[in-house]
Design brief:
alpha+beta; globular; homodimer; HIT family, subunit A
Amino acid sequence: MYIRELSKPDGRKLNLYSRRPIAWDIPPSLLEAPPGANPHLRWHPLRGEWVAYAAYRQTRTFLPPPEYNPFAPSNDPVHPTELPRGDYDMAVFDNRFPALTGSAHDPPESLVDTLPARGQCEVVVFTQDPEGALGRLPLDQIELLLEIWSHRTEVLERRGDVRYVLPFENRGAEVGVTLHHPHGQIYAYPFVPPIPQAMHENEAAHFELARTPLLQDLIGAEVQSGERVLYQGREAIAFVPACARYPYEVWVAPITAVASFFDLTPGQRADLACALKTVLLKYDGLWQRPFPYLMAWYQAPLDGNPHPEVHLHAEFYPPYRSQDRLKYLAGTELAAGMFANDALPEEKARELQAVAVKW
Amino acid sequence: MYIRELSKPDGRKLNLYSRRPIAWDIPPSLLEAPPGANPHLRWHPLRGEWVAYAAYRQTRTFLPPPEYNPFAPSNDPVHPTELPRGDYDMAVFDNRFPALTGSAHDPPESLVDTLPARGQCEVVVFTQDPEGALGRLPLDQIELLLEIWSHRTEVLERRGDVRYVLPFENRGAEVGVTLHHPHGQIYAYPFVPPIPQAMHENEAAHFELARTPLLQDLIGAEVQSGERVLYQGREAIAFVPACARYPYEVWVAPITAVASFFDLTPGQRADLACALKTVLLKYDGLWQRPFPYLMAWYQAPLDGNPHPEVHLHAEFYPPYRSQDRLKYLAGTELAAGMFANDALPEEKARELQAVAVKW
């Protein structure tokens, strides 16, 4: 992996990544962020969680026409974009409209507790091709992405104020995506957010009793059943979990637990890339159209401790329950926290198993 | 409040409610549920929560044309509906497609724990007028609804297998509503679901220290500030909470804590109806169009204990962040559990305060 670290004129970091050496003469891109990003956190005492407020985000770019794609590589100073022209594979840069940023300061007084919304929001552009898709990238470029997530986690850990790094991709207008150029995001939180925190507590309780990681045991049972498996290689697996909350929910993981991206062996990384590509191609093949989803990668918190109980994995939450019907989150999901799934995981696994994948 | 309890031909319960006596000769309505509803629960070991599976729900009614409105009062045996003709205000009946039902039995074996999805899903039709809206009902009919929620909670508690009763309304196609005739739902869970459970834990921890209910203290601070208050009567209040997760989030509550609907005094109920109507009319007045939302009412769990720490209240989660933009729940909300709000609660409160309400 080759890296070029640049700074944009507004001070934001821009990192170019490539499988090949990157030329020295690539200038940073010129698009500037509006000044004054100063998000803050407020404590929600009833739910016991932080909420981030970033009021200036209301003005963020919204479904611009193709000629205004801010992720298109360009050296045009009149219509600047986030990425420079040049030979590289992927790029990571600070979000122009961060919900969390290292420069947050002086939160307002409130009747609930407040804090500066420290942390980091990064954008990961997967390819220079605005018409591309993560699943159509060559395998070694998907492996590169796994290496980039590892590198970003290391870099963000070094800051000292980040406790959790979550790479994710929102894909499709159905999940609110405002820019269709293939990209994901990385949120670096100054605390462990509620959902990974709950997972870690359940993983720790299981490990305490069983001395084996919870998800590794679950994957062992999925392998043995085979009923919901979409891909099984030597080192990685993709499956519809028996407890899927979304109809087309899929999990991707190494078969043997590793806590974080930087614990992956090259063999695990290569097989994870195969598992990931298989899922993405099956999704797009299912209805012969781009399949929207939220993909999130869970790893260990950054607290200086080893986490043998934590099992790095991705969860996909697609918004559709059938070809023409969305699954809306409503009363029972958003207000009670109990998901009601209209489909059996076994049925949806069969649908996805039946999609032939051609690489 | 007058009640008529009927049984539909398929065995489902139908309760008619009215402010006036109900005639004896109203026949039950004739629409039948497809047989075989047998939902089950599976345990999600990573999240530590139950997920409900109700596969037969895939076939449920979806945005039918007006002439097929299944909530229109009708005695036509050829095109049966859920409601009979007659003089009554509201009706509550068992959902045809329940995610939870008392007759659930023999859950399938799985590699995760399973249970029958016991409990109850009820539909509450707010008015016989398919073009009506909860906020446009007369005040005493909104008071009736608060009495109905109290009665349903009592009835469901008597079953013995219900631990939590959540009345809610999903309103608008934006939140996935499949039938536009004004109605809400009641979910009666066989356990306390994760979100009310977390609230109760935070309320109990606060009460242990302060000897006062958490939300009552929060409301005291909101009253003192006044900045986000939308309605304040002698007994009830409506406000945008300082820790709002959704841009137009509003909470409605009695000013003094009561644990459950059946603890409300007539004075509190009357003022809560005013607070609720005010919020609903402000919502619809904001952009002069029906305002979509999820409204959920939180009350104490049904565990036989008094709950002086619990404070009955409603939370509204509207899906819009501005007149033409939806707030999508994506990576940070659904995968991490940290909400990022693009708007300050103070700004959104000012917008709603500025909406004049005419009754």
